[in-house]
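[PROTEIN RECORD]
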Amino acid sequence: METRELRYFVAVADELHFGRAAQRLGIAQPPLSRAIQQLERRLGVTLLARTGRTITLTDAGSVLLREGRAALDAVDAAERRTRRAAIAATGEPGLVLVTKAGASGELLAKLLDAYAAEPGAVAVDVVLCGIAEQEPLLRDGRADVALLHRPFDSTAGLDTEELYTEGQVAVLPAGHPLTSRAQLRMADVTGLPGLPMPRWPGADGTYPDGPGPQVRDHAQLCQLIALGRAAAVLPESSRAHLRSDLATVPVLDAPMVTTVIAWPPHSRSRALAGLVRAATRL
């Protein structure tokens, strides 16, 4: 299969309409229809069920949509990494590190200082992301390395080194009755009247979803908690950067969180290797 055919098919599968897909691709509809028919003949399967004006994906089409997206993402990532390698060869700034805003702040500061002292260290561009955004940036080639947090972030298919493991704390408005307790359990936090756990759009179920307001980043979450509109369970290290109008209590049965440094398994960057060594020493 050609990447062009895959892009055509993904556009049609997304739109379920040849006219809209053709407009999205910037081509005429007849060659798009012919390309999809040619792809079906080559594979020997029906990808799209056509009933009058209605188009639906067959089971085979659903599989190709999933696999085709992954293949196109890999091609796009290869292009980005190739361009980044060419830039690095000229001696221009080298590494892009992504991490979730508000997480691992103390570790990140120590890591950047330690790496800067390494012989041959290159500039590190730090990108602070919203919830569940750092992993896609690493996988699609827009970043070289990431700080991820298991079990919330998937590290499947990536090379990783574990840096540290910690417990979690309930984050509550200062003065809430539960803040006088020495410890809590998840059941104490998840059913608090008026303080629902937040919803995490785009997290694909990797973050525990509650019935409360949608949140996209750490600052938004902290403000909602301070206003008495939500509660949350976060890694212990988040305490260092919380506002004075918030309080924390350890949650005994919350899952442990492991911070890892992760990078693509095919990377051969010496600068990246130096950053990983600095991280594991810390």
About this structure: The radius of gyration is 23 Å. The longest strand covers residues 159-166. Residues 101-150+261-281 form one domain. The chain has three domains: 3-85, 101-150+261-281, 168-255.
